[in-house]
């Protein structure tokens, strides 16, 4: 398989678009947690009860054509290979928890993979809409459209006082989690991010790594999301997040300008050293690759690197993960083999840019 065909098949179509503020905001996501009336939550439900939900999904939604998302495809966890599930996690289409569900876990996917509906994870349904750049309102609108479409055929658990009922009390109410993935290298380099972090937490938001709760921040990529769902309207939750993200964008732009004015030579040296390592290394670990890719992306966005497209970080932060490397290789790989494959894939990707 060539690198071109692998990239075309591997990258979600929505990731290839550049949304608003895409030099800093990688993606926007809205997720709605929903459960059915009269069926226990997945954490305590029996296998036959979870199987009943899968049967309803097959009957009512799998293969159906949605006006916005097209035909929905159902993937069941017990029918997938381990590496296939790992790839779905790396593409943020399912959670690590769902990938470990061997009895009745599944996911409904849209054609462009901007929509994924996890079935029998922590809740019966988790409707997730992903868009490129800073598009929280659009993500909320699309997620609500799917929520309404599903509720035409299903009876979701809802309480007049508490709102939507969920497995975890922190999701009760709207059941909404909104988040953005942000690239904030200048705030990290100027050591301002750690000073901003407490203020973000005080506003009821949480900062996590690229795979959400419990994951490590890599490549100066941070996921920022709401913590509170009860007692707030959906639009207010999204507006609070949008306000904080807008301020972070301004701070990041100011930090980039400060680096350019006060430390341009040091900044250029860092960026081009990282570019050189990516262009010529024969083995590279995942964490270092993310760090170097972050530097190169910063150089592109600041106009210091002219001949490489800005979405290279978006692509390679997915393509260089273990699951994708093994899919590209067509076999299971040891850690050392993955490091070699990762370096080779990055070199090939950069050569494609220079050839265009």
Automatic annotation (TrEMBL):
ATP binds at residues 27-31, 92, 126, 177-181, 208-213. One of its GO terms (cellular component) is extracellular space. GO terms for molecular function: ATP binding; creatine kinase activity; protein arginine kinase activity. It comes from the Bacteria. It catalyses: L-arginyl-[protein] + ATP = N(omega)-phospho-L-arginyl-[protein] + ADP + H(+). The keyword Transferase applies. InterPro entries: Arg_Kinase, ATP-guanido_PTrfase, ATP-guanido_PTrfase_AS, ATP-guanido_PTrfase_cat, Gln_synth/guanido_kin_cat_dom. A motif (RDXXRA motif of the pArg binding pocket involved in allosteric regulation) lies at residues 338-343. Its EC number is 2.7.14.1. GO terms for biological process: phosphocreatine biosynthetic process. Pfam families: ATP-gua_Ptrans. Keywords: Allosteric enzyme, ATP-binding, Kinase, Nucleotide-binding, Transferase. Belongs to the ATP:guanido phosphotransferase family. Catalyzes the specific phosphorylation of arginine residues in a large number of proteins. Is part of the bacterial stress response system. Protein arginine phosphorylation has a physiologically important role and is involved in the regulation of many critical cellular processes, such as protein homeostasis, motility, competence, and stringent and stress responses, by regulating gene expression and protein activity. This is Protein-arginine kinase.
